[in-house]
Amino acid sequence: MNSWHTVKVKYTKQLQDGTLKRVTEPYLVNSISFTDAEARIHQEVGEFTRGEFLVTSIAKTDFADIFHYDDAEVWYKAKVSYVTEDADGGKEKKVSNNFLISAHNVKEAYERIEESLKGLQVDFDIPAISVTPILEIFPYVAMEGEDEEPTQSESYAEEEAAASSINVAYVAPDEEE
After folding, report:
1. Do the domain assignments include residue 34?
2. pLDDT tens digits, one per residue of 152-166
3. Is 167 inside a domain boundary?
4. Domain ranges, residue 116
5. Which of 4, 47, 125, 137 is deepest in the core (most CB within 10 A)?
């Protein structure tokens, strides 16, 4: 199962006036593990940066869905709340989910999230919308020969198979009685 990871990258960026500045910028990567997120960011960011860059942090990020519109490059995080009934006790429970949406301003982000969720069967509230520092999103891309996204268990099985082929020699010391 893939999940979203926020990866912060530090590198030297050339500004519009020609000066060089060391910056740390966040990117959102769809990957199956922290290792995969780091490998993907090296592949993606390495294409457009000059010189060396450093991955300074990777954090798992929880978004229920992402709504991308081609006409906007600013990403907004929208908190959407709704009330659901607990299946066991029948008690009402408030649930909040975070959505990411591209828009030009907060008003447009609100309108777009409302439009995207209008088919929801429950009444929902949008208590907060805020701009995020995320510059770009890198969704999962299947490698050549792959039909679909690998699951966490398939990835783990592949790692276990690779790990089982490692030979380790260990000599136990003689025990004295």
Report:
1. yes
2. 444 433 443 333 333
3. no
4. 3-157
5. 4
Phi, psi dihedrals of residue 137, rounded to the nearest 5° = -120, 135
Residue 16 lies in a domain: yes
Classify 40 as helix, strand or coil: helix
Number of Cβ within a 10 Å radius of residue 40: 20
Q: Total domain count for the chain?
A: 1
In a domain? residue 76:
yes
For residue 175, which amino acid is it?
E
Measured between alpha carbons, how far is 36 from 100 in angstroms, rounded to an integer?
22
Q: Where are the beta strands (DSSP E) in the chain?
A: 3-14, 20-31, 53-61, 65-67, 74-85, 92-103, 124-131, 136-138
Q: Which residue has the tokens 């995969």?
A: 36
| Chain segment 118-158, per-residue pLDDT in tens | 888 888 999 999 999 999 999 887 655 555 554 444 443 34
Using CA atoms, how far residue 141 sits from 33, 40, 55, 145, in Å, is 15, 10, 21, 12
